[in-house]
Amino acid sequence: ERKFYTSLQAKFTRAFNELTNNGASLGSNYVNILWMLLRLRQACNHPALCGGPAPSAAVAAADLAAATQLKPEVRQSLLDRVQGGVPECPLCMDLAEAPSVSACGHLFCRQC
User: Fold this and answer.
1) Where is the RING-type domain (predicted)?
2) 38: part of which helix (H) or strand (E)?
3) Per the structure, how many domains does the chain have?
4) Which terminus of the chain, N or C, has fewer Cβ atoms within 10 Å?
């Protein structure tokens, strides 16, 4: 488990250094940095908790396309919920990690 954590830490350290060396604003990469920290924290408990890769640009684009199909009042409601903090997933009753919007406008964990 220690070997797994160390390799994950080295990978994320390289990624963080690339972000800072490229002059990118850390604010614009805030979600990615938090995601890396979350995975490191999960690795402390068990490697199996570190599941799946970071959300890709293609997945984000698909979510955006789905969100534009929603009624304006539903979009505003979702925006208000997300801006108020990380929403709760109604299926697992945990904080919605990598929240995804369903066709009906509900927020779920991507895994749920």
Assistant:
1) 89-112
2) helix 30-45
3) 2
4) N
Both 27 and 67 in one domain: the answer is no
Pairing of strands 99-101, 107-109: antiparallel
Q: Does the reported pTM lie above 0.85?
A: no
The pLDDT tens digits for 60-91 are 666 666 767 778 887 787 777 777 666 777 77
What is the distance between the alpha carbons of residues 45 and 50, in angstroms, rounded to a whole number?
A: 9
46 plus 69 within the same structural domain: no
Same-domain status, 32 and 61: no
Which amino acid appears at position 33 of this protein?
I
- The CA-atom distances, in angstroms, between 107 and each of 5, 60, 67 are 31, 14, 11
Range of the domain at 33: 2-50
Residues 64 and 44 both lie in one domain: no
Task: Count other Cβ atoms within 10 Å, centred on residue 89.
Answer: 20
